[in-house]
Amino acid sequence: MPALAVMALFLALAPFSPEPHLQQKINMLLNGSLSKPLDIFDLFLHGTPLVLLALKIFFKITDK
To answer: What is the pTM of this model?
Structure first.
């Protein structure tokens, strides 16, 4: 799980300057301007590790 956490944080924050891609793509999604295939791919590329980490933590907490 530590490797997934590092990967998730790194991809969520990359590139570090001027604005992380994940933040930029989420803003584009909320504004309705996320239409290019490359932008959609970037959203999935940078967001997937965070979703996987969240699911892993959720299932670890709920596992009895």
So the answer is: 0.76
